[in-house]
Amino acid sequence: MAVVTLGKSHTGDSTPVKLLGIEFAGTLRGGKKRSRFAGWTGKAGGGVGCLAKLDRWSDDKTRVTTTPVVRNKSGRGEVDVTRQREKDRIRERKMAEAPKIELFVKASVDAESVGNCPFCQRLFMILWLKGVKFTITTVDMKRTPEALKALAPGSQPPFLICDGEVKTDNNKIEEFLEETLAPPEYPKLCCRYKESNGAGEDIFLKFSAYIKNPDPGKNDALENKFLATLVKLNMNLETPLPHELQQNPNANESTRLYLDGDSLTLADCNLLPKIHIVKVVCKKYRDFAIPKALKGLTRYLENAYKQDVFRYTCPNDSEILFAYKSVAKYLNK
């Protein structure tokens, strides 16, 4: 069960925050209670309301749970009700013992949702996959209150507070979460195969060189170098993993869903936010799309976008394009 407490946007006012399909008006920790299922800002079709339950608990904080509501339907015996109550008590006890985690992420330009930051999205996805209760707070760095500056002086989002301890290094936060939120209470997210951790690691570097170049004479060479990194990732995704070969020694092509198998891992949380940025920016400035001929990569992305943990943590395309407005260049005519 993924439970999220939505914190107030640190803008110095009561700007509504839109996350996980809910728009909260006014101060979110106490205060106004008006809310509606709205979906992500700018997302066609809106809402994940059908997937969520909106609760206000005894501490007056609003939380969203992606676990369906269990009700005692007519015809169910008293034994079922008793069992459910016992499960509820166990769940409440576990939640009371869970660490108190708050993740601070970059706010969007309008301070209404999350901004463009692959590192923020990476940690957001990890916490969601862990299924731990956590608070997520958007930070508008243009109007950061003094209290927040004192909390993590000199730091840019993302940073995390766990049981009062502030952590600011992205890689160390990931390591900390994997060690602290460990089995049997929380799922293990590290990769089975070390090669999965480095998959696609050179894409962003070649993408940056490709998209920053305005000279048409250099474009083809830079595009080919960038495309070569996508081909390399595609080969990785099409190559059967050892456990696939154990199941089928004659397998010529992998059928796995993600980098390390059929479950999302830390490697996916690191790579997918970057690939999403690559897709959006390349389409805008080069009219370039990932070739369908790269079947492994195409399959990987199709499976990833089916997952709420990825789809609903992505910033709006407009946020990504705004961030690259002064970086990406159209080719000179």
UniProtKB/TrEMBL annotation:
<keyword id="KW-1133">Transmembrane helix</keyword>
<keyword id="KW-0813">Transport</keyword>
<dbReference type="InterPro" id="IPR002946">
    <property type="entry name" value="CLIC"/>
</dbReference>
<keyword id="KW-0560">Oxidoreductase</keyword>
<dbReference type="GO" id="GO:0005634">
    <property type="term" value="C:nucleus"/>
</dbReference>
<keyword id="KW-0964">Secreted</keyword>
<dbReference type="InterPro" id="IPR040079">
    <property type="entry name" value="Glutathione_S-Trfase"/>
</dbReference>
<keyword id="KW-0472">Membrane</keyword>
<keyword id="KW-1003">Cell membrane</keyword>
<comment type="function">
    <text>In the soluble state, catalyzes glutaredoxin-like thiol disulfide exchange reactions with reduced glutathione as electron donor. Reduced in a glutathione-dependent way and secreted into the extracellular matrix where it activates TGM2 and promotes blood vessel growth during tissue remodeling as occurs in tumorigenesis. Can reduce specific cysteines in TGM2 and regulate cofactor binding. Can insert into membranes and form outwardly rectifying chloride ion channels. May participate in cellular growth control.</text>
</comment>
<keyword id="KW-0963">Cytoplasm</keyword>
<keyword id="KW-0407">Ion channel</keyword>
<keyword id="KW-0868">Chloride</keyword>
<comment type="subunit">
    <text>Associated with the C-terminal of MAPK15.</text>
</comment>
<keyword id="KW-0272">Extracellular matrix</keyword>
<dbReference type="GO" id="GO:0005254">
    <property type="term" value="F:chloride channel activity"/>
</dbReference>
<keyword id="KW-0539">Nucleus</keyword>
<dbReference type="InterPro" id="IPR036282">
    <property type="entry name" value="Glutathione-S-Trfase_C_sf"/>
</dbReference>
<keyword id="KW-0406">Ion transport</keyword>
<keyword id="KW-0869">Chloride channel</keyword>
<dbReference type="GO" id="GO:0034707">
    <property type="term" value="C:chloride channel complex"/>
</dbReference>
<dbReference type="Pfam" id="PF22441">
    <property type="entry name" value="CLIC-like_N"/>
</dbReference>
<dbReference type="InterPro" id="IPR036249">
    <property type="entry name" value="Thioredoxin-like_sf"/>
</dbReference>
<dbReference type="GO" id="GO:0016491">
    <property type="term" value="F:oxidoreductase activity"/>
</dbReference>
<keyword id="KW-0812">Transmembrane</keyword>
<dbReference type="InterPro" id="IPR053823">
    <property type="entry name" value="CLIC_N"/>
</dbReference>
<keyword id="KW-1015">Disulfide bond</keyword>
<protein>
    <recommendedName>
        <fullName>Chloride intracellular channel protein 3</fullName>
    </recommendedName>
</protein>
<dbReference type="GO" id="GO:0005886">
    <property type="term" value="C:plasma membrane"/>
</dbReference>
<dbReference type="GO" id="GO:0005737">
    <property type="term" value="C:cytoplasm"/>
</dbReference>
<keyword id="KW-0851">Voltage-gated channel</keyword>
<feature type="domain" description="CLIC N-terminal">
    <location>
        <begin position="99"/>
        <end position="184"/>
    </location>
</feature>
<comment type="similarity">
    <text>Belongs to the chloride channel CLIC family.</text>
</comment>
<keyword id="KW-0597">Phosphoprotein</keyword>
